[in-house]
């Protein structure tokens, strides 16, 4: 058993996707409730732990697959060491490729937006073999293809992975079946929903708190407790995420990209972007079109 924990760091779209392949971890993350911006798929190959999700406790053991919805607050306690694989995907860019696959798009929409009592699945040995084959295959491809091909290969893998889950693992998750209903957001998720609707506007905490029917101080403290981030920090990440997508997928002028992403003037946009990513928006656009950095293995100190 190796002790080094690494991830395959995908150098495209500034980590709107990333993939951890069969990685041993021996550090137990701090036990606190947190959430992630994207959808997350966690597969535990070896080891044990406990998951608190939707106010219920679940046991994690070998061959356990869990999916987390964007910004879904959860807590994981591990017995160490453990071997796991992890896929995190920020959905706005993924949906761009789903319009050709209507049934798969419906499935992803259900995973993202609906409240299910079943987000944890205990796989059979046969399913474990299939999942491991897919994970091993994409790991091999990502480490052998050129940087220009990595994104394409990962998207192909993701479509196959989601299709397999739909047909062979999450078979009970279809509209109208018992135990599946529209998801009711908690306060932190409602704050995120509000930000996603208003991030292009000047931020006003009083306006947000009035919408939530809560005090401004309570809203701020609650969001930081649940997500580990301040509302202002999240607002900035949301604007920068939007700007990256626009820079990568459109020919829109830089100043218009900033304006469309919620930045009041081009200089402020460039300053914030460079502070976060150490390149200017124009340099980033050039890098995405002609990515100079190949896939590499990096040390990862994951948060569960």
TrEMBL record:
GO terms of molecular function: DNA-binding transcription factor activity; sequence-specific DNA binding
Keyword Iron listed: no
Domain HTH araC/xylS-type: 189-287
Top-level taxon in the UniProt lineage: Bacteria
Entry annotated with the keyword Transcription: yes
Keywords attached to this entry: DNA-binding, Transcription, Transcription regulation
Pfam family, one: AraC_binding
Protein name stated in the entry: Helix-turn-helix domain-containing protein
